[in-house]
Amino acid sequence: MINGIKEKQFVTVEGGVCAAQGFKANGLNCGLNKDKGKNDLGLVVSDVMCNAAAVYTTNKVKGAPLLVTKEHLAACGGRTRGFIANSKNANTCNADGVEKAEMMCSLTAKALGVEPDEIVVASTGVIGQVLPIEPIAEHIEELAAGLSPENHGKAANAIMTTDTVMKEIAVEFRLGGKICKMGGMAKGSGMIHPNMATTLNFITTDATVSSGLLQKALSDVVKVTYNCLSVDGDTSTNDCVLLMANGLAGNEEVSAEGEDYQEFKSALYFVMMNMTKMLAKDGEGASKLIECTCVGAPDLDTAITVAKSVIRSPLVKCAFFGEDANWGRILCAIGYAEAEFDIDKVDVDMSSVNGTVAVCRNGAGIEFSEDEAAKILSADEILVDIDLHQGECSAKAWGCDLTYDYVKINGDYRT
Questions:
Q1: pLDDT by residue (tens digit) across 310-331?
Q2: Considering the entire predicted model, what is its pTM?
Q3: How far is C-alpha 224 from the geometric centre of its chain's CA atoms?
Q4: Which structural domains are found in the chain, ordered by start?
Q5: Using N-to-C axis directions, what is the helix angle for 327-335 and 300-312, rounded to 10°?
Q6: Helix, strand or coil, per DSSP, at residue 243
Q7: Catalytic positions, please?
Q8: pLDDT tens-place string over residues 70-97
Q9: DSSP characters for 333-377?
């Protein structure tokens, strides 16, 4: 058990958000992004209505698309047909933001022949700039006409902002003897910090699961994946995770917390954990992925708090960028974590594909080879292992190093 969930390995498959039966996608450049080689408008829909669940940013400033999405999910009793999403403009802090978000849903619904409330909406990009609806209106028919399971990558490209790579994954699993699939796509590189941490994330499955259990599973897994991710300490205004289940796999509906629910939750954790790692590794300007594991904690919340404290530390991030085994910064970050434990029992190791080095035992430094440590930290994925020796609970958190390029990217983000 890690993060309170039974970790399992699943067979990965191709297809991203269209790996599951009945989902189609498309993406194109409608003109919001001047770079014609970059998609800025994406659409993913199901052949049938889906049970749905969502989690949103805790930022008091919320993008208009989030408000409209909440309304539409509520109006349809926790169900949706699909979503329209754009990049380059967040449609946030605008007087006409809700009107524009509603228009995006209405335009999409008309092109698909469904009701506006059956469509939800998401936006990402610059905050405080009015969203021009004309480019979207001019291209929505083309977008809908090109819907295909093969176009999942076009949709994943459409939600990217400063991302350098698309983030997709899909897996296969069984519920009630039926083969089910689950796929996801995510975007995020900067303005990423716990509660919520990831900007836009969409997950689809052909499993049959009740809306109530979808929401429970999503909320539980968000706590130990996306909410354990930090790039720069800024929680976005537009963060959203949407989970859709259309039931086309034909399994008996999962409506109680039994064996099938646990299998579904494990698959959801696998998908979301891997997307969380992709987001951390592609942090703005990042050169290294940092994964911190805290074991031996008295409870799950303590384990999460300690692990998150380390990956959020700017000084720890800088040390890893410089490949400096400055383990004192790690212990410092553990020490100011808002949790109760005995620091004098804490052990710390650092490792990578190049080996492992023990740097702290019982809260104090021990001798180690600086040359060996530098070799370990030269890898592009660094593991920090912490043992509190004060319980049986464990958790992981993910982040990245802090580089010169992060400042360059964000110094002229609008221009």
A1: 999 999 999 999 999 999 999 9
A2: 0.90
A3: 11
A4: 11-281 (3.60.70.12), 289-411 (3.10.20.340)
A5: 130
A6: strand
A7: 198
A8: 999 999 999 999 999 999 999 999 999 9
A9: HHHTSSS---GGG-EEEEEETTEEEEEEETTEE----HHHHHHHH
